[in-house]
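Note to self: the last two entries modelled the partners one at a time, which told us nothing about the interface. This time every component goes in together.
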Amino acid sequence: QVQLVQSGAEVKKPGASVKVSCKASGYTFISYYVHWVRQAPGQGLEWMGIINPTGGSTSYAQDFQGRVTMTRDTSTSTVYMDLSGLRSDDTAVYYCARSLTLRKAYYFDYWGQGTLVTVSS
Amino acid sequence: DIRMTQAPSSLSASVGDRVTITCRASQSISIYLHWYQQKPGKAPNLLIYAASNLQSGVPSRFSGSGSGTDFTLTISGLQPEDFATYYCQQSYSAPYTFGQGTKLEIK
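The predicted structure of the combined assembly is written out below.
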């Protein structure tokens, strides 16, 4: 069965970086794109960016440009999201989710379980 | 960025009711509109994709319609497990924005 399994919760200080992993299984890793979506406590969903596991190309939301880096390791079917310059308002649950590769058909049929990142001094 | 606006923000209903949630896009997005259900502490779950297509495994009491800028999610015959928060999401252009959510509560 398709699974996206994320790394565990993190507590970071302001200004630090965090790297969250998302390990895919149950499907052909390079056949789907992976997105990152975050959700601050009690708030809605915010799309952060997308990575194409085939070549590693990425596209990031403007709000995260310069602070986020998404990478992948095809040998382990794992995608990583690195967020730097952490602020208190980056406290959120971070989700990875997969989509089809067809342009405009970026809906998310499988999600990771979420990783809580807490930024606090 | 395309702004997605859901209405209402919250809704009280009873088991067995028929409820409708609307989602409006700030510009035309054709049919590239998707609906998710989220329960507390869980990841969102895809219900409807491309405006009106029922995701595999989702009960047929869920349905979606619309195109352009106006879309609806309808739940016919609410079940206890349907009380959750619902989000729409557009995939017409990046950033792939979500609505603010509609919380469906038990009356």
